[in-house]
Design goal:
two-stranded antiparallel sheet, mainly alpha, 8 helices, 165 residues, single chain
């Protein structure tokens, strides 16, 4: 499931990311970008990928680094990105300005390791109606069940949230 999420996240980054340049610096940015050789861009990109940072070795690479400082990445449409979190925070602040401060907060913590519904969703044959609070069950085994089958944990979360709402 994590591999599938990674693939979906990369796809969202590719589809919904864009670059932003200040309006007044756009003409000079465009002319500088056209004048940079592709080899200089490739060298800078490969060094960033391999080392995480780069130091300019010639004039073309200095121009590339200068252009990189002028460009901002816009990724607010990518779920899970820091820009998406900032966007959601700003939406909450706007709602508080227009509707007022919320009067009631609820924090929900569905503990999938302690809930017998997880075992039921995993296919274990249990009688949910006759489970008593004092009946012992192994939390460690359920932790392993959740770790090995994250889909069951996601289904439990969905059932729990739908029951709450």
């Amino acid at each position: 499931i994590f591999i599938a999420f990674n693939i979906l996240q990369r796809r969202a980054v590719l589809l919904h990311s864009s670059l932003k340049v200040k309006k007044q610096s756009f003409p000079s940015f465009a002319s500088n970008l056209v004048g940079i050789p592709e080899e200089a861009l490739a060298r800078v990109c490969s060094r960033i990928v391999h080392t995480g940072f780069v130091r300019a070795e010639d004039a073309d690479e200095r121009r590339v680094l200068k252009l990189m400082q002028e460009v901002q990445l816009v990724s607010s449409a990518v779920p899970g990105s820091s820009a998406a979190r900032v966007k959601m925070r700003n939406e909450i602040r706007a709602l508080m300005l227009s509707k007022g401060m919320p009067n009631f907060f609820v924090t929900i913590n569905p503990a999938d390791v302690y809930n017998p519904v997880v075992r039921l969703l995993a296919g274990e044959d249990i009688d949910v109606d006759n489970i008593l609070p004092d009946q012992p069950y192994n939390h460690w085994k359920q932790s392993i069940l959740v770790a090995r089958n994250p889909v069951v944990a996601a289904q439990f979360f969905d059932v729990y949230m739908k029951a709450f709402v």
